[in-house]
Amino acid sequence: MSTPADPAHPEASPAHVTGPRVSLYSGEFAADPRRAYRAMRDRYGSLVPVELAPGVPATLVVGYRTALQILNDPDRFPADPRAWMQNVPSDCPVLPVLQWRPAAPRSAGADHARYRGATTAALDGVNLHGLYGIVERAAMSLINSFCSAGSADLVAQYAAPLAFEIVNAMLGCPPGISEKAAAATAAIFDGVDAEEGNRRFGEAVLELVRLKHAEPGDDVTTRLLRHPAQFDEFEMVHQVIALYGVGMGPLQGLVINALRLILTDDRFGAGVVGGSLSTRDALDQVLFEDPPLPNASVTYPRHPVMLEDTWLPAHQPVVISLAGCNDDPAIGTGDHTGNRAHLAWGAGAHGCPAKPLAYLIAQSAVDQLLDALPEVELAVPAEKLTWRPGPLHRTLVELPVAFPPSPPLHLP
Questions:
Q1: Residue 343 exposed, middle or buried by CB count within 10 Å (0-12, 13-18, 19+)
Q2: How far apart are CA 81 and CA 92, in angstroms?
Q3: What number of other Cβ atoms are within 10 A of residue 293's Cβ?
Q4: Residue 275's pLDDT is what?
Q5: Is 352 a residue whose pLDDT tops 80?
Q6: How far apart are the first and last CA of the chain?
Q7: How large a percentage of the chain has pLDDT more than 90?
Q8: pTM of this prediction?
Q9: Sheet holding 297-299: strands in order across?
Q10: What distance in Å separates the CA atoms of residue 295 and residue 39, rounded to the nearest whole number?
């Protein structure tokens, strides 16, 4: 490791002087991030100088134990990005996802505790049996829309609309508002006019919050409105935005990545369909190797911090690579079947509060498809599948499949 720099001049730290930064937004990185993580670790160790977007430097953490040290030290590594944002242009493509919001994922200290407590209580109020029924009906309805055709794109025709419908059902969002939110979310995650997409997304969520003020229901939005934290309208909008952000894209990615694994890996294809492995095994393998949010756990040191002989600059993102850390040889390599020690749900104060819901939804979505179309297979060679570029997510552009045409399912 290079000689540590003077903390008074963190811009001269090893993370800045060892050569060009690794791009996390390139197509090359998206095509094979596991190879990229290993090359980074070989060259830099646990702390890697990267760019999240052109001209947006960060440090990527690819060491499992180093990540746990950071995630369990929120005093030195808070998740509040406001100081960082002062030097980030408004049209930065990752800003809409990483910018400060008065919500748990991008806050620290007492604010985080307040937001986190309300979010956890609102999610805990979701009836799991009722949620399973919602997923079942939504999945069967979507399958009926393409089962007689003998082919489908499981991203556009199944996982994306399914995640969208389920998240909106939990939030109590009616179709008119949800359509606006979907269009805005797509713009944000694709990085196409992300600033405008962010604005339109906020408008759609504000409309939902005002609707739930007037017409409360048995849903997450209403429970947030009624929580003792007593959020004002601005705070409420951002609680709901945060739930959308960690619900729609990541949930879609988890379903698609699990289906891709089952369709391309004989260990899971034959195992899940034949019964020797469960869908849960496939989901956990995906959460080890291809988690849908591999690099979205971000902290911002308040002061320069010395870690492993490296000075981390104040207010510059320190990104926990959940995928890179899961691949750390220090915690073992090879088959992870039955192993749930991955970091895909995060850890510490910012661990995902929706983990039980996400498992239930994703497992049911995969099972419904495989039960309805047991002979489904890829319609293209596996190497022709394309991953969406971007530093924060991990999901396919499309997942084309073929199967014997079948009659529509009987909806419950």
A1: buried
A2: 14
A3: 23
A4: 60
A5: yes
A6: 61
A7: 63
A8: 0.87
A9: 22-23, 47-53, 56-61, 318-320, 297-299
A10: 17
Q: Specify the pairing of strand 56-61 against strand 47-53.
A: antiparallel
What distance in Å separates the CA atoms of residue 42 and residue 45, rounded to the nearest whole number? 6
pLDDT in tens, 304-332: 999 998 999 999 999 999 999 998 988 86
DSSP-derived pairing of the beta strands 318-320 and 297-299? antiparallel
Whether the predicted pLDDT of 208 surpasses 90: yes
| AA identity, residue 323 | A
Which of 257, 258, 255, 236 lies closest to 247, judged by CA? 255
Task: Tokens for 377, please give them.
Answer: 């297979």
Using alpha carbons only, what angle is made at residue 240 by residues 236 and 244, rounded to the nearest 5 degrees? 165
153 exposed, middle or buried (CB, 10 Å; 0-12, 13-18, 19+)? middle
pLDDT at 14: 44
Residue 119 and residue 113: Cα distance in Å, rounded? 10
* 167-181 confidence digits (pLDDT tens): 999 999 998 898 888
Long-range contacts of 216-220 (CB under 8 A, 24+ apart): 217/172, 218/172, 219/169, 219/170, 219/171, 219/172, 220/122, 220/123, 220/125, 220/126, 220/170, 220/171, 220/172
Write out pLDDT tens, residues 72-118. Answer: 999 999 999 999 999 999 888 888 889 898 999 999 999 999 999 99
Output phi, psi for 311, to 5 deg. Answer: -85, 120
Domains and CATH numbers, the chain: 1-100+294-343 (3.30.43.20), 102-290+352-412 (1.10.630.10)
3-state SS, residue 215: coil
Task: Give yes or no for a contact between 59 and 66, defined as CB atoms under 8 angstroms apart.
Answer: no
The string of pLDDT tens digits covering residues 358-370 is 999 999 999 999 9
Q: Are 30 and 396 in contact (CB under 8 A)?
A: no
Q: How far is CA 140 from CA 200, 405, 411, in A?
A: 31, 15, 7
Among candidate residues 370, 369, 360, 368, the one with its CA nearest the CA of residue 272? 370
